[in-house]
Design brief:
Blueprint (H helix, E strand, L loop, with lengths): L4 E10 L2 E11 L4 E5 L6 H9 L6 E6 L4 H6 L3 E4 L13 H7 L2 H4 L7 H13 L15 H15 L3 E5 L7 H16 L3 E5 L6 H4 L2 E6 L1 E7 H4 L2 H8 L23 H5 L4
Parallel strand pairs: 3-7, 3-8, 5-6, 6-7
Antiparallel strand pairs: 1-2, 1-4, 8-9
Helix pairs in contact: 3-6, 5-6, 6-7
This protein binds adenosine-5'-diphosphate and magnesium ion.
Organism: Leucobacter chromiiresistens
Family: Belongs to the ABC transporter superfamily.
Keywords: ATP-binding, Nucleotide-binding, Transport
Length: 267
């Protein structure tokens, strides 16, 4: 069986910076895969490579057997960018953002029809933003913004969803809503790849985990990924490894440790 997302030996450089070094990852359909790595480990670059937004110097990406360009053109892949990569001042309403998920289906001549509008309203309801459709996207809270982009993916009805740090700076309710939706989408056969540095959320969120540090160090079960040894390798820490899956149930916002904050930026 071909992997839903197949990243083969991808190397990406920005000038002198080697962002991905021979990264290989297969992601299966019907599962949520967590992509874990510290700041600067190449998570966003991996997503951009999968979307065809950066051109690898070596290696290849296929999404459902298609090139990134073909997968995008056919609307099969949806992408929720990290907040830093979005221009929140752009004057569009929440509903407009969600309607963008339908554009791939609209073609250049057809206008949004009632089926499109229904799909958009349904997606807004699923992310619990039905009341805020008219609001300017920049006027939402961090968690609401993320939910709006998740609604865009739902409206798009893509087979493959890529979410870059959807939990960064979001409230508990938004996180819980997004986790629940991603699990539902995976249960329905979608492929979900989501980056996070919130290790405590991982057991509830993901079926599989991949550890990234310019290349994929490990890919397998969440439990195996969260061993202190593997985390030390991924985060460059030999000590004070974050708590493992076994005691992750007791996570509370105030208690959360973010390994990236301990190690600082590498960029
Ligand atoms: N547009 C860019 N130009 C130059 N360097 C970049 C650019 N984007 C990312 N980088 C560098 O590439 C490395 C990987 O970055 P990134 O993929 O954003 O990692 P992550 O998402 O895991 O924080 C970092 O060292 C980062 O500074
Ligand atoms: Mg990033």
């Amino acid at each position: 069986m071909t992997a839903a997302i197949d990243v083969q030996n991808v190397t990406v450089r920005y000038g002198d910076v080697l962002a991905l070094d021979d990264a290989t990852l297969q992601v299966d359909a019907g599962r949520v895969t967590g992509l874990i790595g510290m700041n600067g480990s190449g998570k966003s670059t991996l997503f951009k490579s999968i979307m065809g937004a950066v051109r690898p110097e070596r290696g290849a990406v296929r999404i459902g057997g298609l090139t990134p360009a073909a997968a995008r053109a056919s609307g099969r892949v949806a992408y929720v960018p990290q907040s830093e990569d979005v221009d929140w001042a752009f004057p569009v309403s929440v509903r407009d953002v969600v309607m963008m998920g339908r554009y791939g289906r609209l073609g250049i001549t057809r206008r949004a029809g009632s089926a499109d509008r229904r799909a958009v309203e349904h997606a807004l309801e699923r992310v619990e933003l039905a009341d805020l459709g008219d609001r300017q996207i920049g006027a939402l809270s961090g968690g609401q913004k993320k939910r709006a982009f998740v609604a865009r993916s739902i409206a798009q009805d893509a087979e493959t969803l890529l979410l870059d740090e959807p939990f960064a700076g979001v409230d508990q309710r938004s996180e819980a809503t997004i986790v629940r939706l991603l699990r539902e989408l995976a249960s329905g056969g979608r492929t979900v790849l989501v980056s996070t540095h919130d290790l405590h959320a991982l057991p509830d969120l993901a079926d599989e985990a991949a550890l990234l540090l310019r290349r994929v160090l490990f890919r397998g079960s969440v439990r195996e990924a969260l061993t202190p040894e593997r985390l030390a390798q991924a985060f460059g820490l030999e000590r004070s490894a974050p708590r493992t899956a076994n005691n992750a149930e007791c996570s509370e916002t105030a208690e959360r440790t973010h390994p990236t904050e301990q190690t600082g930026e590498t960029a």
